[in-house]
Task: inverse folding
């Protein structure tokens, strides 16, 4: 959607926003703070927020994904709703987020995915890390002669 497009009452949207400037490198708000700030906005309903990161080590690449149901009367444009979010942030402890850049507005239940940026390696999930740790411990045990110690103790 374009920033000049009109919003439809009752429609779900996902706005993709990116902090810009120095804020992008040093300020990382929590999703709880973002939700608390926007919960009283009369034109945003059922708000949920996700922070998509390009990688664990990235700075300045975070994308804020704000999904909501538009509760306005249909006279608002995408830019009006975005400005309403910025006004919420400036009136709260999240005033540093006034320098957010608008990337996109996607209508519909799916919104914008939180897939990682192509080309960057994904970090393993915790179950993979446990498996790697267990294999590593077993290798250390076997290579350090642990099997012969077990045989001597068992005999």
Result:
């Amino acid at each position: 959607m374009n920033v000049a497009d009109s919003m439809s009452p009752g429609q779900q949207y996902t706005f993709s926003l990116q902090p810009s400037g120095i804020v992008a490198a040093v300020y990382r708000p929590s999703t709880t703070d973002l939700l608390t700030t926007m919960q009283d906005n009369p034109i945003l309903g059922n708000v949920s927020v996700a922070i998509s990161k390009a990688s664990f080590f990235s700075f300045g690449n975070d994308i804020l994904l704000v999904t909501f149901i538009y509760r306005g009367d249909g006279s608002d444009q995408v830019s009006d709703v975005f400005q309403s979010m910025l006004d919420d942030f400036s009136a709260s402890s999240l005033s540093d987020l006034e320098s957010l850049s608008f990337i996109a507005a996607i209508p519909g239940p799916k919104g914008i995915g939180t897939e990682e940026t192509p080309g960057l390696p994904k970090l393993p999930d915790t179950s993979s890390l446990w498996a790697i740790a267990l294999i590593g411990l077993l290798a250390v045990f076997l290579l350090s002669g642990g099997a012969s110690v077990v045989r001597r103790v068992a005999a």
Q: What stands out?
A: Residues 126-143 form the longest helix (18 residues). The chain has two domains: 12-107, 123-155. The chain has a mean pLDDT of 76.
